[in-house]
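Appendix B. One record, verbatim.
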Amino acid sequence: MAILQKNEERLMTGEELARHPEFQPCELVNGRVVPMTLTEFGHGDLALEIGARLRAWAKETGRGRAAVGDVAIYTRRNPDSVRGADVVYISHERYARRSALTWLDVAPELVVEVFSSDGRWSELSRKAQEYLAAGALRVWLVHPRKREIAVHRASAQLETLGIGDTLRDEEILPGFSLPLSELFQD
C-alpha cells in the first residue's frame, strides 16, 4: 500500500472492500465506501416477491438465474464502484463470463431496486443510469407508496407502470408476467 501524504485520500478497490466485511453493509462509489442503511420489512418483502417470481421463471425456462439481497455488482472500474442491488436476473451466458468469484463483474440483464422510505428518488434514478451504463439492459425502480414501477431501458426509454398494468419484457424475459395488482397487495 502506498504511503499517503497528509490530507490525501486513498481510494479503495472492490477487491479490497471484499476483504473487509466490517465495512458492510455498504456500497463502493468511485473508490469511496458509502454506508447503507438497513431496509424495512416492506422493502425486503417486495424485493423477495419479485425475486421469487424471477427465480421461478428462470428455473422454468432454464434461461438464467435470479438473486436477492444487495447483490454486489461492479458498475465501474478505476476508481471502482460496487453497488448492492435488491434483485438481479442474469442469463447463463452472462453469468459464465464473470471472472470474480464473489461479486458480479458482468452486468446482469435486469436490476431491480426498491425505493426505501428514507431514500431519495433522484439518487435511485442515478443508480439506475449507472447500472445501464455498466451494461444492464433493464432497471426496474419499484415505488411501493405510489404502487408504481419505472422501467428504465438501455435505449434511454422510460416507462411507468401502475396498479392496473402487468409487467412484461419479451426481449429479456419472454413469457414472464407480473400483474402489479398482485405485487402491491395490502
